[in-house]
Amino acid sequence: MVELALLAKYNVPVPRYTSYPTVPNWQENIDIQKWEKTFRHDYETSGGISIYIHLPFCESLCTYCGCNKKITTNHSVEEDYLNTVLTEWQLYHRLMEDKPVVRELHLGGGTPTFFSPENLERLISGILKDAVVHPDHEFSFEGHPNNTTKEHLEQLFRLGFRRVSFGVQDNDPEVQRIINRLQPLEQVKTVTEAARRIGYKSVNFDLIYGLPRQSLQSITTTIQQTIALKPDRIAFYSYAHVPWTSRGQRLFDESDLPGAAEKLQLYQAGKTLLTGNGYYDIGMDHFALPGDDLYKASVEGRLNRNFMGYTTQSGDILLSLGVSAISSTSNAFAQNAKTIHNYYDNINKGSLAIEKGYFLTGEDKQFGKYITDISCRGNTLIRDEDVDIVNTFCRTDLDKLEADGLITFHDQQLSVTPLGRNFTRNICSAFDLYIQRNKSSKEKKLFSNAI
C-alpha cells in the first residue's frame, strides 16, 4: 500500500502523455501542405501504419465523458459520416505511393457500436481494399455493453478484429444513474462471454474511479465483479473532472464527487484488488493478465504508447480519420476539426480537415523519447548532450522524486522503482520541458490530476 500522504503530494495536474509535446502546446492553423509533405516523407521510411477511426455518435449523454461526441438517436447520420471518412482515407491514400501495410486499426468514439454491423463492414472493407494487412496485425474496437450485439462481434471478427474494449466504468446502479449510463452487470457478462465464444483473444474493461457517488464499498464490489469475469486487460482510469472543456460534466452536483482523500482510497483499493488477483500493473492506469499480449510486450520491452494508449505495435505513422482525430508521424502531429460541420466542409472540398498541429524539433523528439521510455519501460538513459538541459530544468523535480523513493538516478541512468510505478505521469512530467520552463507562469488549468 502506498502512503496516502505520498499520493496526495503527487496528486497534481499532469498530462497522460499520449504525445509530446502535449496538445495544449500545439499551434492553431498549421500549414497543411507542410503536414502533407512531412506525412509523405515519414511514410516512405515507415514499416507500416496504424489507423485510428473516430466514430463520434452516441444515443445518450454519459455525463462523466470528456470525449468528442455527438448525441443523436437518428441513425441516418451513419451514411454521410462514413462516406466522409472514406473520402478522407482517399485523400491520404494519394500521399502513399503504394498500398500501405496496416499493422494496427482501432475504432474509438463516441460509440463505435452506434453504427450498424453492415455499415462498419462497409467502412473497414473500404479502407482495407486499398491496403495490405500485416500478418501480425492488431485490430480492436470500443464497444458499449448495451448496444454491442452478437452481429457486431461476428462481423468485426470476420474482418480481422481480435480485441474488444468494453466501457464498463462502474457497476453500481446509483453511480450509473447519476452518470446516465445504465447497464446491468448481466449485460456486461453476456457481451463478454459472447466475445469469447466468437474467438476474441483479448477483452478489456474500462473502469473509472472518482465518479460521483462512488464509495469504497461500491468500487470494491465493482472490482470484485470485474475480476470474476476475468477480462484480459483492465484500464482503471482516474475520473478527469474538466467541466471547463466538457459541458456534460456540469450536469451533476460536484458535491457528489469523492473528496481528494477518498478518491485516493478508491484508487488504492482498486489497485490492491487487481494486483492481488493476478493482474500486473503495466503502467499509467493499465493492468493485464500474464497471458495477454500487452503484458508480454511490457516484459519484453516492446511496449509503446500513442494516442490510442499503450500498444504492442511500433510503427511511426498513426493515421487518424474522423472528426477531431489526431494523426502523428515521427516528425509531426495533426488534429482534425473538432466539429462535424467543419470536418465535413473541409473533406468535401477535397482538403484535409486539419485545424491544429505541431512540427517537432530535435529536442522535442529526444525528450519525448525519455518520456516514452519511462512510461513504457520504466527506465531511460540521458544522453551526454542533454545533461545540461536536464540539470537546468529537470533536476529539481528529479531530486524530489528520488528523495521520495520513486526513482533512482545515477550516472545519467534513471530507473523507476516499484513504488514509483504509481506515479509514472509525475515522473514523465519531470522531462516535460514545456512544463518545466513555464513553472512560474500562472496559466489556466489544462490537465486533470494525476490520481
Write the layout of secondary structure elements.
Layout: H1 4-9, E1 27-28, H2 32-44, E2 49-55, E3 57-58, E4 70-71, H3 77-93, E5 101-109, H4 117-128, E6 132-143, H5 150-158, E7 161-169, H6 173-178, H7 185-198, E8 202-209, H8 216-229, E9 233-238, H9 260-275, E10 280-283, E11 286-288, H10 293-299, E12 304-306, E13 309-311, E14 317-321, E15 326-328, E16 332-336, H11 340-348, E17 354-359, H12 362-377, E18 379-381, H13 387-403, E19 407-410, E20 413-416, H14 424-429, H15 433-436
Parallel strand pairs: 2-5, 2-14, 3-4, 5-6, 6-7, 7-8, 8-9
Antiparallel strand pairs: 1-17, 9-11, 10-11, 12-13, 15-16, 16-17, 18-20, 19-20
Helix pairs in contact: 3-4, 4-5, 5-7, 8-9
Q: Which key features would you list for this structure?
A:
single chain; 451 residues; alpha/beta; Arc Repressor Mutant, subunit A; pyruvate-formate lyase- activating enzyme; 2 domains; 4-stranded antiparallel β-sheet; 20 strands; 37% helix
